[in-house]
Automatic annotation (TrEMBL), chain A:
Keywords: Oxidoreductase
Catalytic residues, chain numbering: E256
InterPro entries: Ald_DH/histidinol_DH, Ald_DH_C, Ald_DH_CS_GLU, Ald_DH_N, Aldehyde_DH_dom
Any one Pfam family match given in the protein's UniProt record, by short name: Aldedh
Keyword Translocase: no
Domain Aldehyde dehydrogenase span(s) in chain numbering: 31-475
Organism of provenance: Actinomadura algeriensis
Record protein name field: Acyl-CoA reductase-like NAD-dependent aldehyde dehydrogenase
Family membership: Belongs to the aldehyde dehydrogenase family.
TrEMBL record, chain B:
InterPro entries membership: Aldolase_TIM, DeoC, DeoC/FbaB/LacD_aldolase
Cross-referenced Gene3D superfamilies: Aldolase class I
Species of the source: Actinomadura algeriensis
Keyword Lyase tagged: yes
Domain of life according to the entry: Bacteria
Designated name of the protein: Deoxyribose-phosphate aldolase
CDD domains found in the cross-reference section: DeoC
Known catalytic reactions: 2-deoxy-D-ribose 5-phosphate = D-glyceraldehyde 3-phosphate + acetaldehyde
Family affiliation: Belongs to the DeoC/FbaB aldolase family. DeoC type 2 subfamily.
Length: 476, 309
C-alpha cells in the first residue's frame, strides 16, 4: 500500500494581507515619496500587496524621528523600563505567531513548518533574551556604565525576514539605541506587521522606524549623516559597497555576509544522523541560509555509503506548497535568485561535476528548484567556491583530518562549519583548526539567542546574539 | 568453548561494534520532526484502516482465562460490531498455554495466533525451558512466536549466547514466524538498540520487536526509528526483509499514525503492510475505531459505543 499524505495547507487568510502597506516612520504608517513596488508570492507569482517606497526625504525623516526618540525618550529611559517594552513585543509576537508564520511563508516561499517551528519562536526568544539584558548592561563585561551609540541603520536580507529583524532590533533597543530598518524589497510584509506590533506594544514613536524599498533606499540609509551605527546582513558584494561608504566616517559597522560552509563527515560518524544533518544543512529554507552547509566534505572510505544514504533521504523530501504543513522544501524567493541558482548549477555540470536530483514534480507556476547534489566536485569548481544560496550541495572527499581542515578552510568565506564524528577528541581537534564563526558538532543550523553568530574573512565581522551581540550596539 | 566458536563470537562482537553509532539527540530530533507531519482527511482515513490491520491484539496477564481470550478473538475478527467494513486485526497474541483456545476461536477468520514463548517477559530460564515453551506453542497452532532476548547476556557483552539462543528458537519455531523482542527499555542506549537489531536479524529473526510491554519505557519513536533504519540497511546488505513491531505505550490514533509516517519515510512504503509492520497495542484499537467513526460521521461517540474486551 502507498501511504499518501493529503494536502494540509494553512489558510492564507490567517495572514490578513492588506492591499497596500505604508512605511513606518515616527510611529505612523506613511506613504513613500518613491514609486510603490509590489511584493510577490514566490510560490505562485501572484501579487500580494503594494508597498510604499522610501526616497531620500523619507529616509531623512525616519532618521530624524529615530534621533528625536533617542534624545528625548529611549536614550534617557532606565534599562528596566526598556525591558518592559521588549518583553511586551516578545509576548505579542507569540500571540500573533500564526499570523506571522503564515505571512512569512507566503511572502518568502519558505515552508510553514520552518516559519512556524523555527523562525517565529526564535524571533520571540530573541526579544525575551535581550529584554533580560536591558537592565543588566553594566554586568555584560563592557564597563560599569556602557552607553548606547544612538541611531542604528539596519539593512536585512530576504531569507529570514522576521528573524533577521529580531537579531538586529532586539539588541539595539535593549542597549538604548533607536533604529531605522530596511527589509528586503521582496519580503517586506512581516516587518510591517512587526511595526504594527510596536504600536500595539505602545513603543514610543520613533524608536523603531521601518523604511521599505530596494537598493537605493538602503544606500540612502547607510550613507545618511545622522546615523551612528550601520548593521548589514546580506551578500558579500553589497557588504563591500557598504564598507566603502562607511569608511572614514565615525559610524560603527558590523557585517554578516555570505558563506560556503564545510560539513565534515568523518568515517566514524553516526551515519543516519549525519545524513539528516547534511540534509538540514543545505535544504533548510531552500538553501537560502548564509551559514548553509553547502560543501559536504566526506571521508573517502565512507563516501559511497554516505552518498547512497543521502540520495535515498533526498528522495523523501517533499517539495511544494509552502503553506502545506507536510512540505520540506518550499519556493525559491525570486526569479532573479532562481536564475542565479540555475546558472551556477549549469556551471557545475559544465566543469565536470555529476549532477543528481531525486525525481520530483515541481509546481508549474512560481520559482522552484529541485534539491540537487553534485558529486565529483573539485576545489577548483565554481560550485565549490561561490555561494549558490539555493538547494544545491557540492560533495568533496578527503582522506585525513588534516586534509579535511585544509579543504574546509580553503575558501574566501568563514561563517560556519559542521563536524560529524562519534569521537569527542576529534571534534575538539577539528573545531580548533576551522576558521569559521560557528562550528556545529553532530548537528547543524542550530540557533539560539544566547549564542553569538558571525563570520571570518569575507563572511564579515562583528557578532550578533548572546552577550557578544550587545557590543555592536554599545559605546565600549 | 572451541576455537571456532570463539572466533565466531569475536567476529560477531567486532561486527556489532563496527556498526555506525547512533546519535541520540539527532535520532530524537528526526523522530520528532516526522511526528509533526500533518495527516488529514483521506490520508487519515487510509492510515486508520492500515493501522487497524496492523494491530496485534494482545492479552498477557497472569489472570488470563479461556473466556477472556475468546472475547478478544471475537473482537479481533470484528473490531466494530456496527461496521463490517472495519478491517480485521493482524493477529491475536496470548501466552503459550492459551494458544489452542485462540486457534479454535479464530478458526476460519484468517487471523494468526501469536504466542509469547521463551519465558516471557524476563527471558531468564535455561535454553531447554525456552525451547520447550516454544515447541508447545507451535504444536498448539501458533503461527507466530514472540521471543524475548536474554538482556543480561546482551548487556554483559555475551552476544554469541544471545545469537545462539535466537538460532535455536528459530529452529524450534519450524514454519512459525519468529518475532524477537529486544526489550529496548532495558538496553538503555540507541547504540545497543541498533546492535541488538542486527544481532537478531543475523540470527534469523523474521520480525524485531521493541518491548514486552512489561517494562517502561516501552516503544518510543526514536527507538523504532533506529530499528527501521536497521531493517532498511539489513535489506540493502543481504536482500532479506525483516519486519518491525513497536509494542507498548501506543494508545492513541495520533500515536499510531506517527509510527506509520516513520515507516513510510524511513524503511519506505514497502514496509506499510501487516506482513512487515505491526503495532503491539490493544488499547489503541478502540481509539482507532472511535476516530474512524468520527471521520465518517463528523461527530465523536463516547467510549461506551465501543466494546471493552
Amino acid at each position: 500500500m502507498v501511504f499518501e499524505y493529503a494536502p494540509a495547507p494553512e489558510s492564507a487568510s490567517v495572514a490578513r494581507i492588506r492591499e497596500s502597506y505604508g512605511q513606518f516612520v515616527g510611529g505612523e504608517f506613511v506613504r513613500g515619496g518613491g514609486e510603490p513596488f509590489k511584493s510577490v508570492n514566490p510560490a505562485d507569482e501572484t501579487v500580494l500587496a503594494e508597498v510604499a517606497c522610501a526616497d531620500d526625504g523619507d529616509v531623512d525623516r525616519a532618521v530624524k524621528a529615530a534621533r528625536t526618540a533617542f534624545d528625548k525618550v529611549w536614550g534617557p529611559m532606565p534599562g528596566a523600563e526598556r525591558a518592559k517594552y521588549l518583553y511586551r513585543i516578545a509576548r505579542l509576537v507569540q500571540e500573533r505567531a500564526r499570523e506571522l508564520a503564515v505571512l512569512e511563508s507566503i511572502d518568502n516561499g519558505k515552508p510553514i513548518r520552518e516559519s512556524r517551528d523555527v523562525d517565529v519562536p526564535l524571533v520571540a526568544a530573541h526579544f525575551f533574551y535581550y529584554a533580560g539584558w536591558a537592565d543588566k548592561l553594566g554586568h555584560a563585561g563592557f564597563g560599569t556604565d556602557p552607553r548606547p551609540l544612538g541611531v542604528a541603520a539596519q539593512v536585512i536580507p530576504w531569507n529570514f525576514p522576521l528573524l533577521m529583524l529580531a537579531w538586529k532590533i532586539a539588541p539595539a533597543l535593549a542597549c538604548g539605541n533607536t533604529v531605522v530598518l530596511k527589509p528586503a524589497e521582496t519580503t517586506p510584509l512581516t516587518a510591517l506587521v512587526f511595526a504594527d506590533i510596536c504600536r500595539q506594544a505602545e513603543l514610543p514613536a520613533g524608536v523603531v522606524n521601518i523604511v521599505t524599498g530596494a537598493g537605493e533606499t538602503g544606500r540612502a540609509l547607510v550613507a545618511h549623516e545622522g546615523v551612528d551605527k550601520v548593521a548589514f546582513t546580506g551578500s558579500t558584494e553589497v557588504g563591500k559597497e557598504i564598507a566603502r561608504t562607511v569608511a572614514g566616517t565615525r559610524k560603527r559597522l558590523t557585517l554578516e555576509l555570505g558563506g560556503k560552509a564545510a560539513n565534515i563527515v568523518y568515517d566514524d560518524a553516526a551515519l543516519d544522523q549525519a545524513v539528516e544533518g547534511v540534509v538540514d544543512g543545505i535544504f533548510f529554507n531552500q538553501g537560502h541560509v548564509c551559514c548553509a552547509g553547502s560543501r559536504l566534505l566526506v571521508q573517502e572510505s565512507i563516501a559511497d555509503e554516505l552518498l547512497a544514504r543521502l540520495k535515498a533521504r533526498m528522495a523523501t523530501l517533499r517539495v511544494g506548497d509552502p503553506l502545506d504543513k507536510n512540505t520540506d522544501v518550499g519556493a525559491v524567493n525570486s526569479a532573479a535568485q532562481l536564475e542565479r541558482i540555475r546558472e551556477l548549477a549549469a556551471s557545475g555540470e559544465a566543469e565536470g561535476a555529476t549532477r543528481w536530483s531525486p525525481p520530483c514534480e515541481l509546481p508549474g507556476r512560481g520559482f522552484w528548484f529541485a534539491p540537487t547534489v553534485f558529486t565529483g566536485v573539485a576545489q577548483s569548481h565554481r560550485i565549490a567556491r561561490e555561494e549558490i544560496f539555493g538547494p544545491v550541495l557540492s560533495v568533496l572527499t578527503f582522506r585525513t583530518p588534516d586534509e579535511a581542515v585544509a579543504k574546509a578552510n580553503n575558501t574566501p568565506y568563514g561563517l560556519s562549519a559542521g563536524i560529524w564524528t562519534e569521537k569527542g577528541s576529534r571534534i575538539l581537534w577539528t573545531a580548533q583548526r576551522l576558521r569559521a564563526g560557528v562550528v556545529w558538532a553532530n548537528t547543524f543550523n542550530k540557533f539560539d539567542p544566547a549564542s553569538p553568530f558571525g563570520g571570518y574573512k569575507e563572511s564579515g565581522f562583528g557578532r550578533e546574539g548572546g552577550r557578544h551581540g550587545l557590543e555592536a550596539y554599545l559605546d565600549v | 568453548m572451541s576455537t571456532e566458536t570463539l572466533t565466531g563470537a569475536a567476529e560477531l562482537r567486532a561486527f556489532l561494534h563496527g556498526l555506525p553509532g547512533v546519535d541520540r539527540v539527532g535520532a530524537e530530533e528526526r523522530a520528532a520532526r516526522l511526528a509533526s507531519r500533518s495527516i488529514k482527511t483521506t490520508a487519515k482515513a487510509a492510515a486508520i484502516d492500515l493501522a487497524i490491520s496492523m494491530v496485534d491484539l494482545t492479552t498477557l496477564e497472569g489472570a488470563d482465562t479461556p473466556g477472556k481470550v475468546r472475547a478478544l478473538c471475537a473482537k479481533a475478527a470484528r473490531p466494530d460490531p456496527d461496521d463490517p467494513d472495519v478491517p480485521r486485526v493482524a493477529a491475536v497474541c496470548v501466552y503459550s498455554d492459551l494458544v489452542d483456545v485462540a486457534v479454535r476461536a479464530l478458526d476460519g477468520t484468517g487471523i494468526g495466533v501469536a504466542s509469547v514463548a521463551t519465558s516471557f517477559p524476563s527471558g531468564r530460564a535455561p535454553l531447554e525451558a525456552k525451547l520447550a515453551d516454544t515447541r508447545a506453542a507451535v504444536d498448539s497452532g501458533a503461527a507466530e512466536i514472540d521471543m524475548v532476548i536474554d538482556r543480561g547476556a546482551f548487556l554483559a557483552g555475551d552476544y554469541a549466547k544471545v545469537f545462539d539462543q535466537i538460532v535455536a528458537v528459530k529452529e524450534a519455531c519450524g514454519p512459525a514466524h519468529l518475532k524477537v523482542i529486544l526489550e529496548t527499555g532495558e538496553l538503555a542506549t540507541l547504540d545497543n538498540v541498533r546492535r541488538a537489531s542486527w544481532l537478531a536479524m543475523r540470527a534469523g529473526a523474521d520480525f524485531i520487536k521493541t518491548s514486552t510491554g512489561k517494562v517502561s519505557p516501552a516503544a518510543t519513536l526514536p527507538v523504532t526509528l533506529v530499528m527501521l533504519e536497521a531493517v532498511r540497511d539489513f535489506r540493502a546488505a543481504t536482500g532479506r526483509r525483516v519486519g518491525v513491531k513497536p509494542a507498548g505505550g501506543i494508545r492513541t490514533t495520533k500515536d499510531a499514525i506517527k509510527y506509520l509516517v516513520l515507516v513510510n519515510e524511513t524503511a519506505g512504503p514497502d514496509w506499510l503492510s501487516p506482513a512487515w509492520f505491526r503495532l503491539g497495542a490493544s488499547s489503541v484499537l478502540n481509539d482507532l475505531l472511535m476516530q474512524r467513526r468520527k471521520l465518517a460521521t463528523g461527530v465523536y461517540s463516547g467510549p461506551d459505543y465501543f466494546t471493552q474486551d
